[in-house]
Design goal:
Layout: E1 2-12, E2 29-32, E3 35-38, E4 44-45, E5 64-68, E6 74-79, E7 82-85, E8 90-93, E9 112-116, E10 119-130, E11 139-151, E12 161-169, E13 193-195, E14 203-208, E15 212-219, E16 222-230, E17 246-253, E18 256-267
Antiparallel strand pairs: 1-18, 2-3, 3-4, 5-6, 6-7, 7-8, 9-10, 10-11, 11-12, 13-14, 14-15, 15-16, 17-18
Keywords: Signal
Signal peptide: 1-21
Length: 275
Amino acid sequence: MKINKFIFLSIILGFSCGLFAQTQTQNGVWSLPEYYWESQSPIQPLPTQNPNIGYDGLPASNVSNAMQDANGDLLFFIVDDEIYDKEGYTIGIFDAAPNYPPFEVKGTSEISIVPVPGNCSQFYIFLSGRKNYTGMFSKKPAVALLDMSQVNTLGLNPGKMGNLLYCRDVQSVLPSNVPDITTFDDKQGGSYFAASKEYDGKRFVFISASERIYRFIIDINGFQYDGFIPVTFFTGDKTLSYRGEMELIEVDNNDIKYRLDFSFYKSSQCQIHHS
């Protein structure tokens, strides 16, 4: 018997974090290439260009996401390993960015876009990569930084706005005494991302691996490691294609500040251990 399950994990944070409601713009753009949807608008095709310089109109093979501007309109979108502006021109390729990691970055299960606190032009992008996508290889999370106020330097579309400043292995952010963030050789799931709203000039980002959920902070000092929580993501049949995601639920219950909702796969041969 094989079962899909969901776990709610309450996180007790050992630092002060006000959880009073603050004005915050929610991303109202949903993408499912080759289409996208904006709030109060009908579903429409994503903008396309010549495939040599932009989006070709095809569905995603691995992951996709999109971000709105201050007016709620499409600002940029991502399909697998490329970032496109609102007109469909390529403004970033993860594997061609400065500091790109020694593995292919095309996403596995999900991709997250996190605005930088206090900077409406910069966005952190979180997704995973593999040694290659032809077999079952360990998943490694990557972090990229996109600046929509800078002129593109990729070379494909001179003069277009939007510049991918870097794409690097999240492992490079971890202190040397912290366990490896690699996810085991299993299905597409297991490497998930979730981010909090902005409070007091910072956001929390949670990244899962096979045996832990790592916590990071994004603030004016950049992207920084902040601890990890032991959680075991057991997996079943490695030949079965399986995807999932992680969602962050904000609560105000004494010392409990957040709950994480994530899926995992269990076969009848596996036991589940979590805290």
